[in-house]
């Protein structure tokens, strides 16, 4: 069964996001278009044979916790081994760190393929890669040499340990402690919850990155440090030694992604857990944000992958299921005519177009962020600052839109199947359960929306917003000269202006100190902002589509562009009106009224 479209992915990489130009940079000199195509094919083959055939079985036979250990599906053994051999963990890392130094544009394309095939898998790889990268970026040479090599081969797993039972997403309230020991290490004590991929039978050790407070550290986020806490101590030669008393307390039983283990960990309960400081004391949150920002884009990418698989499941069903008859010119149906396939009904086409528009728009957004990340790495001076700011402002959007719009797309995809979509016999219900967590991972939609409005839009006097507006305006200028795209370009410009008008209405509240009013509808603003950003991506795709020789492919892209502007971009005026309404109902509604 198809779960993504290789032709669309290739189109986005080469025609929309200019992979060929990126490969001209010295950093990526080891790659060319042919080698990238081989990588894409290799990961597709891996996904076709080792990932996709097991996604339903991993849901039906979920992770099990027993006697302090987590057991995952047996297929993870060959998957993790093969992923290590293929270099999928070290793909983006520097060559001097034994990485493949691959463009993030390509890395995220490869991971998207795997996530569309089986979204239960890539968290094990991505978290290990992210944890290893934090150690490489901020850790000492000793920490790098001791822990990273076996993480890159997936012999050892890596995690990020932030959330605590009493604190949730409020990291300023974490209480895990770090007591200095005589040898420069620390005794770590505390509880961490919702820790993904933190124990299973296919890794010899788990390298936990743990946020904790050194005794006497300042309150709030300014007093948080970051530590490497291995499950088992590691000798200088890289071999594992005694148990470090990182106890798995339990496995959370989840609605979806049941093949992706999520654990409750206790540090220092059964004995001393020793940790090693990364970088400077009290700077831990800034270090961890490197991993969190990577994880936010990765989470959006995962939502895109799930939505893609759900779309192709719906499409296949619609092409095979006969039901009903098309209306005749009389406005009636002829019962003597054979039933038609449901894909011929306009409302089913609408639902499929909705899925397609969301999936491809989200994928283009993820690749846009990846392109900016690559440009930031290879640029210098003002250009480097520019791409950093563009990455910053799009980061919460890349996490939020694919998770929220992707969830809606999967839900609509289930509707295409009618009653069968609700049944366990078909995979659509699993995709709906799997994608539900995506808007919660790595900061909920509300948190991402507050980040966008409260930090990213206003940072450096709105510099990031201005840069993004310039990028959108460049696309509008190119498109407005094309007769086929002129109306869309005009619409995008008008809706982009709505963002400025909305901020013009809200910013005075913040300037007067009424920050609650400024941020009260941050989630609605995220919807408006994201819709304009995806409209921009679709206009970019429209420009690239005009150059395509494949008539069906070209028509497919232009029709989906038309759908997005008719059904999605048209919501922007209503969102703007809601945000700027004088009512303060959510602020004035007090606890007793509920």
Helix and strand arrangement:
Blueprint: H1 6-16, H2 19-22, H3 33-51, H4 55-60, E1 64-66, E2 69-71, H5 76-85, H6 104-117, H7 122-138, H8 141-152, E3 156-161, E4 177-180, E5 186-196, E6 205-214, E7 225-230, E8 232-234, E9 240-243, E10 246-251, E11 262-267, E12 273-277, H9 284-320, H10 346-378, H11 381-416, H12 428-435, H13 445-456, H14 459-480, H15 486-511, H16 515-519, H17 522-545, H18 551-568, H19 572-580, H20 585-588
Parallel strand pairs: 3-6, 4-6
Antiparallel strand pairs: 1-2, 4-5, 5-11, 5-12, 6-7, 7-12, 8-9, 10-11
Helix pairs in contact: 1-10, 1-17, 3-6, 6-9, 6-10, 7-8, 7-9, 9-10, 9-11, 9-12, 10-11, 10-17, 10-18, 11-12, 11-13, 11-14, 13-17, 14-15, 14-17, 15-17, 15-19, 17-18, 17-19
Spatial strand order of the main sheet: 4-5-12-7-6
User: What value does the Rg take, in angstroms?
Assistant: 25 Å
Q: List unreliable stretches of 5+ residues.
A: none
Approximate shape: globular
- Number of strand elements: 12
Span between N and C termini?
48 Å
| Major sheet | 5 strands, mixed, barrel
- The overall average pLDDT, rounded, is 95
SS element count, helices: 20
- Residue share in β-strands: 5-15%
The share of residues in helices is 55-70%
Judged by helices, strands and strand pairing, the structural class is alpha+beta
What do these coordinates show?
Helix 7 (122-138) runs antiparallel to helix 9 (284-320). The chain is of the alpha+beta class and 594 residues long. The mean pLDDT is 95. It contains 20 helices and 12 strands. Strand 8 (232-234) and strand 9 (240-243) form a beta hairpin. It is globular. It has a 5-stranded mixed beta barrel with strand order 4-5-12-7-6. It has a two-stranded antiparallel ribbon with strand order 1-2. The chain has a two-stranded antiparallel sheet with strand order 8-9.
């Amino acid at each position: 069964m198809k779960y993504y479209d290789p032709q669309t992915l290739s189109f986005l990489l080469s025609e929309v996001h200019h992979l060929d130009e990126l490969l001209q940079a010295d950093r990526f000199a080891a790659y060319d278009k042919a080698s990238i195509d081989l990588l894409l094919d290799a990961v597709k083959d891996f996904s076709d044979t080792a990932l996709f055939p097991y996604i339903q079985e991993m849901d039906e036979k979920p992770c099990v916790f027993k006697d302090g250990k987590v057991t995952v599906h047996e297929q993870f053994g060959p998957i993790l081994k093969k992923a290590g051999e293929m270099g999928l963990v070290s793909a983006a890392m520097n060559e001097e760190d034994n990485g493949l130094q691959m463009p993030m544009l390509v890395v995220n394309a490869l991971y998207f393929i795997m996530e569309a095939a089986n979204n239960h898998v890539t968290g094990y790889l991505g978290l290990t890669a992210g944890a290893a990268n934090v150690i490489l970026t901020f850790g000492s040479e000793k920490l790098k040499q001791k822990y990273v090599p076996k993480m890159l081969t997936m012999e050892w797993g890596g995690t990020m340990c932030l959330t605590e039972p009493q604190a949730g997403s409020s990291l300023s309230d974490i209480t895990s402690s770090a007591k200095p020991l005589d040898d420069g290490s620390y005794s770590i004590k505390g509880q961490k919850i919702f820790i993904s991929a933190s124990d299973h039978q296919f890794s010899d050790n788990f390298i936990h990155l743990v946020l904790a407070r050194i005794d006497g550290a300042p309150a709030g986020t300014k007093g948080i440090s970051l530590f490497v806490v291995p499950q088992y101590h590691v000798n200088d030669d890289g071999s594992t030694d005694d148990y470090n008393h990182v106890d798995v307390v339990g496995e959370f039983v989840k609605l979806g992604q049941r093949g992706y283990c999520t654990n409750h960990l206790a540090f220092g309960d059964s004995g001393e857990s020793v940790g090693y400081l990364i970088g400077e004391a009290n700077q831990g949150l800034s270090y961890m944000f490197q991993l969190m920002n990577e994880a936010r884009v990765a989470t959006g990418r995962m939502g895109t992958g799930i939505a893609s698989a759900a779309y192709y499941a719906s499409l296949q069903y619609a092409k095979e299921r006969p039901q009903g008859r098309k209306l005749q010119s009389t406005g009636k149906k002829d019962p003597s005519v054979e039933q038609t396939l449901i894909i011929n009904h306009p409302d089913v086409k609408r639902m499929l177009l909705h899925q397609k528009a969301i999936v491809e728009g989200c994928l283009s957004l993820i690749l846009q962020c990846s392109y900016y990340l690559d440009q930031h790495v290879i640029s210098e001076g003002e250009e480097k600052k520019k791409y950093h700011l563009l990455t910053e402002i799009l980061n919460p959007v890349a996490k939020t839109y694919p998770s929220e719009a992707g969830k809606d797309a999967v839900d609509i995809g289930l509707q295409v199947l009618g009653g069968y979509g609700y049944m366990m016999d078909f995979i659509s219900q699993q995709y709906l359960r799997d994608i539900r967590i995506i808007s919660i991972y790595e900061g909920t939609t509300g948190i991402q929306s507050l980040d966008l409005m409260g930090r990213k839009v206003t940072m450096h006097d709105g510099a990031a917003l201005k840069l993004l507006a310039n990028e959108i305006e460049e696309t509008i200028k190119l498109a407005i000269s094309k007769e086929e795209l002129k109306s869309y370009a005009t619409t995008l410009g008008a809706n982009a202006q709505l963002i400025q008008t909305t901020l013009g209405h809200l910013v005075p509240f913040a300037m007067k100190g009424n920050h609650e009013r400024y941020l009260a509808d941050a989630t609605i603003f995220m919807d408006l902002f994201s819709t304009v950003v995806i409209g921009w991506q679709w206009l970019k795709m429209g420009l690239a589509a005009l150059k395509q020789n494949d008539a069906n492919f070209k028509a497919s892209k232009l029709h989906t562009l038309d759908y997005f502007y008719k059904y999605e971009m048209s919501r922007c005026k209503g969102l703007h009106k809601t945000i700027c309404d004088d009512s303060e109902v959510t602020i004035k509604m007090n606890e007793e009224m509920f």
